[in-house]
Amino acid sequence: MPTPHINAKENDFAKVVLMPGDPLRAKWIAETFLHDYKEVTNVRGILGFTGYTKNNKKISVMASGMGMPSIGIYSHELFTSYGVEMIIRVGTCGTYQKDIKLKDVLICSAASTDSNWMSQYKLNGTFSATADFDLVLTAVEEAKKNKIPYHGGNIFSADVFYDHDPETWKRWASLGVLGVEMESYALYVTALELHKKALCLLTVTDNFLERDKKLTAEERQSGLSQMVELAIATAEKYA
Asked: Which of 49, 80, 136, 137 has its CA 20 to 30 A from that of 149?
């Protein structure tokens, strides 16, 4: 049942999907962590794969592209057209907090945003976008068990990468927001609306307090392994 943006066939996707932003990172995850995998979609270069973990649990991995409009499209179509029940975003972020180190993993229990994503719902208040509670608990349990350095809390999903006001981040940081990325809020809202499960796991690649501290392109790839392993361990509980 192809959609305008996904050309997979019925039953090509598992119930659980890991979702990085980068199509090549999706391919890397399939090649590195799955066996007997196959490519199931490639529209516009957005790659998706389905295979089996080392414990023979069937999962899928598919890229989301960058930004909330992009992940909003792909998550909605996976949930409504392909029977997907859970999406775990596996991405990267910059941190706002001094106690968070490069390569630490953020388990994002909630997301804030500067986007007008919620205007479509015409609410008379502010909607808090949250992860699935059971998924958060499972991820925390697995992180502790595997001694993965993690931090839990609120992430900021931004619409703007190159911010006109270079001090904006400090106002979010003062409220305890862990850091910034560009997708989680839309994923959480989409999952909540459709009564599905979603979680965002992020590897810290940049530090806003010390701008010279950032992972190289090579470190960004190799440094993501523990996050992906955490995502798979979490996913296997539901696959």
From this structure: 49
Residue type, 193: E
| Nearest by Cα to 93 from 207, 169, 199, 175 | 207
Locus of tokens 């196959």: 38
Alpha helix (H) residue ranges in the chain: 23-33, 68-81, 133-145, 168-173, 184-193, 217-222, 225-236
User: Does the pLDDT at position 218 exceed 80?
Assistant: no
Tell how strand 48-52 and strand 150-157 pair up: unpaired
Nearest alpha-carbon partner for 95 in 206, 224, 182, 229:
206
Contact of 19 with 56, CB cutoff 8 Å:
no
CA dist 204 → 61, 100, 101 (Å): 21, 8, 7
Residue 206 falls in the annotated catalytic set: yes
Angle 184-193/68-81 helices, nearest 10 degrees? 30
pLDDT in tens, 184-213: 999 999 999 999 999 999 999 999 998 877
- Of the candidates 114, 134, 159, 206, the residue annotated as catalytic is 206
Tokens coding 221: 């790839």
Torsion of CA 205, 134, 146, 19, to 10 degrees: -40
Residue among 129, 132, 135, 137 nearest 154 (CA): 129
Token pair of 179 as six digits = 């850091």
